[in-house]
Amino acid sequence: xxxxxxxxxxxxxxxxxxxxxxxxxxxxxxxxxxxxxxxxxxxxxxxxxxxxxxxxxxxxxxxxxxxxxxxxxxxxxxxxxxxxxxxxxxxxxxxxxxxxxxxxxxxxxxxxxxxxxxxxxxxxxxxxxxxxxxxxxxxxxxxxxxxxxxxxxxxxxxxxxxxxxxxxxxxxxxxxxxxxxxxxxxxxxxxxxxxxxxxxxxxxxxxxxxxxxxxxxxxxxxxxxxxxxxxxxxxxxxxxxxxxxxx
Amino acid sequence: xxxxxxxxxxxxxxxxxxxxxxxxxxxxxxxxxxxxxxxxxxxxxxxxxxxxxxxxxxxxxxxxxxxxxxxxxxxxxxxxxxxxxxxxxxxxxxxxxxxxxxxxxxxxxxxxxxxxxxxxxxxxxxxxxxxxxxxxxxxxxxxxxxxxxxxxxxxxxxxxxxxxxxxxxxxxxxxxxxxxxxxxxxxxxxxxxxxxxxxxxxxxxxxxxxxxxxxxxxxxxxxxxxxxxxxxxxxxxxxxxxxxxxxxxxxxxxxxxxxxxxxxxxxxxxxxxxxxxxxxxxxxxxxxxxxxxxxxxxxxxxxxxxxxxxxxxxxxxxxxxxxxxxx
Lengths: 247, 327
Hints:
The structure holds two protein chains of two kinds.
Chain A: E1 3-6, H1 14-22, E2 27-30, H2 38-47, E3 57-58, H3 60-70, E4 75-78, E5 97-100, H4 109-120, E6 127-129, E7 135-138, E8 141-144, H5 146-157, E9 162-163, H6 169-179, E10 186-190, H7 193-201, E11 206-210, E12 229-231, H8 234-246
Parallel strand pairs in A: 1-2, 1-10, 2-3, 4-5, 5-6, 6-9, 10-11, 11-12
Antiparallel strand pairs in A: 7-8
Helix pairs in contact in A: 1-8, 4-5
Chain B: H1 2-12, E1 18-22, E2 28-29, E3 32-33, H2 37-45, E4 50-55, H3 62-71, E5 81-83, H4 84-95, E6 99-102, E7 121-124, H5 133-144, E8 149-151, E9 157-160, E10 163-166, H6 168-179, E11 184-185, H7 191-198, E12 208-212, H8 215-224, E13 228-232, H9 269-278, H10 295-307, E14 311-312, H11 316-322
Parallel strand pairs in B: 1-4, 1-12, 4-5, 6-7, 7-8, 8-11, 12-13
Antiparallel strand pairs in B: 2-3, 9-10, 13-14
Helix pairs in contact in B: 2-10, 5-6
EC number (chain A): 3.6.1.1
Cofactor (chain A): Mg(2+)
Signal peptide (chain A): 1-22
C-alpha cells in the first residue's frame, strides 16, 4: 500500500488532513523549517487543528546534530534564535565548523563576518547548511532563504557546504527509513520545485507540485524538474492520491 | 638586458598612444607617493600619449581621489580618472535604468544626476551597512522581477586592521543564486573596465599599456582586453614571478587596504618603505638607435620604461623571449 510524505509549509486544510489520517497511508512531515524547534513548530500546527506529533517530523536541525556528534564537530551557529534549543546538547566551545540555517534577521553583516572569520581561520573548514533553498514566502513577500547565504560563505571561503535537509538525498532517505518504506512506495507533496519535488524525485519517489506557498508560474517551465503532477493545493493532491489508491 | 631589448623590439611593432596607470600600489601607497612617481608622471606628460588613472574603488568618488592625489603632489585632472564607479555609471546610462544603490555614501557623488526613484536595477559595491537582511531582500525582489544586477567588483574579502572582512563578492553571489541570474561585473579585471577606460581616448587596446601592481587584476585584465601590461614591484606585487601561480588574493585591491593577505605580505608602513629602497635601480637606458627607428616611439618607450622604478615584464614579449624568439 502506498505511503505518503507531506511537506508541511502549506495552508492548513483540516478535513482532508483527517482523510489522510483515516486512510491506510503513512504520513511523515519533511520540513526544512529551521526558524523554530520541532516542538514549537508542532504546537503551532496543533493549534491549527492538526493532529501531529514531534516524532512524525523529519527536520534538518536534529539531522545536523546527528552529523555533528558522529564527526566530533563543534559548531558556530548562524541560525534563527528559535531553533538554537535544538542544539542544546551539542558542545559549542572552540568551534571547528559553522552551521548555517534560515537565520532571517540574524543574517546581519556582522554575524556573517563572524562565521566567515571562523571558517577562513580553520585548517579544515566545514560548513553545514540546513537546506539550500533560494527563497521562501512570508506574509510580507518573498525572502532570501539559507541557500543564498550558504553560497555567499562558499564563495568567500572557496569551499563547498554540506547540505543537511532538503534536497539532500540523505534527508529524504532518513525520512523513508523512519517510515520503513521504499521510495517507489512514496509520494512527496511540496511547493518548492527544486528542494521538494526535485529532491524527492532524485531519490526515486514520485512528487506533486502544489501551486501555493512559494510556487511561481515560472516553475512550470523549469528546465530540469518535471513533477509527476501539478495540483492547485494540498486538497487536490490528496484527492489525486486517494483516487489512485482506490483504483 | 636581453629581456629589455626584446621588449623594445616588440613594442616597436605597435605605437603606444595611451597609458593607463593604476593608483593604489602603483602611484601611491596609502598616504605616501611611491618614490619617484611624481617625477615619472611629469616625464610621461611630456610624451604624446593620453594618460588615464584607473582604479577599482567602491567608496571614493572622483573628487575625493583627485584631492588625495593632488595632495601627494600629482598633477592630475578629474576627467583623467576612471574608476569602477565610473564604469557602473556608464552602464546605468547605457541601459537607461534607475538603480537601487548599495554603495558607500562617499561614492554617491559619482552617481549625481542618475535617477534612483522607483528603482529597476541594483548596483552593489562594498557597503557593509547595506548588507543587512532587509536591504538584501529589497535587492533580491527587484532582481527576481527582472532588474539587472551590477557589481562594482566581486572581491571575496579584504583586510582590515582587526582581521579579514567580507567583500561584496559573497553578497553578489548569494543574490545571483537566489534569483538564478548573473551579475554584470564592471571593475578590474573585467574586459569592459579596460575598454571603457579607453573610451574617449581614440585609442585601440593594442595601442595602450596598463601599469599596475596586481598581477591578475591589472596586468592579466589589461592583456585580456588586448592591451599590454606592466607589473610594478611596489604595492601588492607578489614575489612569485609566475602570474598563474600567484596566490589569488581576491581581496579588494587598493581601496580599503593596499596590502592583501599574500605570501609577500607587507604589513606596516616602515617595512614597505624599506622594501622599496632595497629594490635595485633600473639600469640606465642604453642608446636604442638602430633598434627602433622612429624617434617618437623611442621617446615614448623610454618614458614608459622610466616611469616606475622597478618593472617586471610579464607580457607575452617575455614569454616569446624565453621561447627563443628574440635574436
